[in-house]
Structure formats: structure tokens, C-alpha cells
Amino acid sequence: VGIVVGIEVSRLARGNADWYQLLDLCALTDTLIAESDGIYHPGLHNDRLVLGLKGTMSEAELHVLRARLRGGSLHKAGKGELRLPLPAGLEYDEQGLVRITPDEAVADAIATVFSYFETLASARQVMLRLLGEDRESPRRATSDRRVRWATPTYRAIHDILTNPVFAGAYAYGRKRTERRVEGGVVRERQRRAPRAEWHVCIEGHHPGYITFERYLENQERLRANWRPPRVAGAS
Prior knowledge:
By secondary structure, this protein is an alpha+beta fold. Helices cover 41% and strands 19% of the residues. The strands form five sheets. A three-stranded mixed beta sheet has the order 1-2-3, covered by helices on one side. A hairpin with a 2-residue loop joins strand 2 and strand 3. Helix 3 crosses helix 4. The mean pLDDT is 90.
């Protein structure tokens, strides 16, 4: 390759790590970089300086765009208007408002989970009872409107009991993404943030299966059931 041509060189990369790798490769192979403003040789000091500044400005622009998009989402979420994916048992009506699903089978299955937890006070016991009664649990994928039925699992029951949307609350920012490097590979995982750290929590936003006060009581009961893992060698 003798020359790389683009309308804007900033479009060639959105991160300086990738950008400087391209500049080093072009300088090594005497490859030119051209855009509407001119032609550059990454091996020359002045041209390399200009390209470096363009890359820095491009990366800064990307951060500004992300911040604006994030700010817009937070503004809409603060008013409870940002449309979020809903779990099985809830859906949007024609006006875009959240309502309990008119599907009686799905609604009954969700209500049964809360009803059983009232008496059993344990997510695991609720799961075992549903399994004993040969019941299935409704689920909905994040990107799918359809509801599918599956064998109840502890995680599915726990997700229902800990999701404030079933208590009529609009919650945004309940999870945080953490990144770490393991073995030279960047891995991501999500953790649930404490309620005090949620970005938005609007009670009474829509009809729910339980009250928000009952939801808070359920969280206390779930925490009371938790036991720390046993440590090897502990008495």
C-alpha cells in the first residue's frame, strides 16, 4: 500500500492506541496518509505532530459525544421517560405506559411467586414448591418481546423478587460494569449496586404486583437468608 486515503483521518481510528499503531506502520513502510486537508508522511516530524493532534482531538470528540448521549439518557430517566426493557409480566401499552400484562397465565405465574414468598420467606423454597407443583416460569429475553416458559430456577425466582419494577418503581442504573485484566484479556462483569447508588428510583411509576414497601421488606428477608461461604479450614 502506498497511500491511505480518507475524507477525514480522524475516521481511521477512535482510540489513540489504534491510531498510533497505524502511524507507526505507515512510517515503517513509507505509506502516506491523505485527507481533504492534505497529504502526510507519518515518518516526518511535522506531519507526525499534526496527525497526532488530529488523533487526540478525535478521541476527545468521542468522549464528548458519549457524555452528551449519557446526559440525555439520564435526563429522560430522571423523569421516568427513558424506555427500558421490561421482564415478563409487564409490558408497554399503546401510549407507551407500563402496565401489568393482560396475559392472565403470565400475570398469575408472577403473582404466585410473590404469594409463595410471603409464606415461605425463601427464594429457594419458592423454587422447590413450584417444581413440586410442576409449574413453569415465564421469561423474556432483553431483545425479544415474546414470553417463553421454562423450568423455574433459583436465579429466575431471585430476579423476580429483587426487581423493583414489579413493585411499580422505575429504576435506572441498578448495575455497574466492572472491567479487569486477567491473563492479558480484558473481562467485563456486572454487579448490582446498592439502592442508594441507583441513578434513578421513582416509586409509584406504574401498577405493580406488590407495593414498594413490601418490596423493601422482601429484600430484608432475602438478605437475612444469605449465609457467607464456608472457608476451608474454618471450625
